[in-house]
Amino acid sequence: MQNITAEQVTKCLDYPSLVDALREAFQGKITVPMRHHHDMEQPNGQRESTLLLMPAWESGKSVGVKLVTVSPENGKKDLPAIQGIYILFDGDTGTPKALIEAKTLTARRTAAASALATSYLARPDSTRLTMVGTGVLAPNLIQAHAAVCPIKEVAIWGRDIKKAEDLAQEMNNLGFKAHAEENLEKAVRTADIISSATLSKTPLISGNWLQPGQHLDLVGAYRPDMREADDEAIKRSSVFVDTYAGAMKEGGDIVIPLQNGILTKEDIKADLFDLTQGEHKGRTSAEEITYFKSVGHALEDLAAAQLVDKRINGI
């Protein structure tokens, strides 16, 4: 069984290729049971951690399962919130094929899923991106969105301005024109695409700030009691999700509006299956505000792991 490192995962999963792999996976026949989600209490008043078990298989080809923990307090310890491993098996014999470092796999597939949605929901001429959050996902999301839109300018907002400045410098070193922005309202109002990846329990983004033609990509707030955008953002937007089952159960940016009657299931325009399979065209006008909520899906992990396996072994 191969042990595949974070460096190998990064090398294998360039964003244009990964976005294409996810598009094909959502169009294909991968089986995905509902993931196991277990909240775990932590001592000394710390926020709960979460254990996720995410299986998926493609008949006769591959079987995979991701084991992940999400620990919101890790930022205080200079550690990524997401930790985990991915185990890939041969779909015919059941033989373990690879043990893949999952923090990088998760970050890249999560960013690529947002970029896949953006390819249907953002204006094709979107050049200005605002990144809300400065964690591990942030640089991945910036690069992934730039793989599907002509992103030239990046504003970065974070609760810690020093972290925003450091990320801006990192992005500038990669060829972006990036800067840290202390005023979140200004950063949102002046963007074409707003991507948010935080662990906020209360809304950061006001719907009153949104402008015609914008695309809002919500990646954080992975629990039902967490939110990154308020009810007004829902009211003003056409709402899309990665999957109906996951978003309606796990993501507070969808669950809470459903509970308070701001949103109904019928109001959700489409998920990534509908978009990739042509059941919904996505954005319908240049003035439309689009809203995408992602909670993650095991199909994405398997597609990413298959691409890693293919490239490592020259299949």
TrEMBL record:
GO terms for biological process: carboxylic acid metabolic process. The keyword Lyase applies. One of its GO terms (molecular function) is oxidoreductase activity. Its EC number is 4.3.1.12. Keywords: Lyase. One of its GO terms (cellular component) is cytoplasm. It is an enzyme of class 4 (lyase). Belongs to the ornithine cyclodeaminase/mu-crystallin family. This is Ornithine cyclodeaminase.
